[in-house]
Specification:
This protein is α+β, with helices and mostly antiparallel strands. The protein has two domains: 260 residues, Aminopeptidase, CATH 3.40.630; 118 residues, Alpha-Beta Plaits. It contains eight helices and 20 strands. A six-stranded mixed sheet has the order 1-2-6-3-7-19. Strands 13-15-9-16 form a four-stranded antiparallel sheet. Strands 4-5-20 form a three-stranded antiparallel sheet. Helix 4 crosses helix 8. The longest helix is centred in the last third of the chain and has 19 residues. The protein starts with 10 loop residues before the first helix and ends with a helix. The relative contact order is 0.17. Its cofactor is Zn(2+).
Amino acid sequence: MFVLARRPASWMNWAGALADHVIVSRVPSLAPRICKELISLHRHLISTESISGNEYDVGKWLSKHLKHEGWAIETQMVNGDKSRLNILAYPGKVRNADLLISSHIDTVPPFYPYKIQSNDSETIISGRGSVDAKASVAAQIIATKKLLAEKKLKPDDVALLYVVGEEVHGDGMRAANALKLTPKTIIFGEPTEGKLATGHKGMLGFTLNAFGKAAHSGYPWLGRSANEVLVKALTALMQLSLELPKSEKYGFTTINLGKIEGGVAGNVVAQNASAQIAIRIAAGTPDEIGKRVQEVIKAATNEFKTPGHEDEEMFEIVFAGKGYAPVDIDHDVEGFGTITVNYGTDIPNLDKLDGQKRYLYGPGSILVAHSDHEAITLSDLETAVKDYEKLILHSLS
């Protein structure tokens, strides 16, 4: 492992110094100048915290960076919030180009700072977003700039769209529909292990709220425990997961109990409880699965109704949007391996035109994304630049 004897006061300066060392000490697969620019761009993106809902700083920095490079920049407020901006950038005069390249600039919490470490064989870059999806953003921009400089790509052929909110139900990409873009091809960036994704599972997210009646825990019959209502409902949901549709391509439909909370104290019968739940759909539609969810929860909680109060609400289900069914994705490009992924993307959130091609590719593994050890190798990042070049040229051929 490479270690500096003394760290400069600024972590960003230290990271930049180490990035320069990496260029000198290893043989990059890209030209040294381009590799250095790739590392610098990736570093700035990661070092600027952009947890969903707090994307302003990274959007401001990226807009300024691309504008300095001579790109035309449009920003779009998401849900009327001036601090949450989508970025549309184009190097020519045409905003509505035939090729659109896109990814997201928000990340999941918590924030982990940028780190770069080298040994004799590899350089590893870590930090929140180092894989998902700032690796894709950096590689896409460098690949596009490289092709423009080599005159293999015309300025009016391409535009970049970077959105907020992908990690929280895709409100940024849904807002981007108002931009009225009509590209013939879109290249989306997410971690796919350097392969083309042939598709990904569908998604249905919802919050389950259970309602009880507070009472002293010594006299529980005077109240109704919202926690007990919730536990019964969640038990029924986990049983339901065994019955939900599966497919040969996407495997099993799975239910994740992501966040559970309820009550105020151990000696109080809980008045309220809730759970946030995500269903990854392998087959069927969100409407079909949502209907089954409502049926099994209703049946499981009927026992809590008391005579004379049959119409009293035991629970409510708040769906996070309409959800979407499994998404098949184009992968007709020679020279790439293929992969099917279980996570969701912004692809179904952007309205699709007839005949439009959509590709999903990105460096790094989803298996480390969202974790405390999210990291990517420099060689994978460099390979992604070359692969995005191939995808861009294929899209315009």
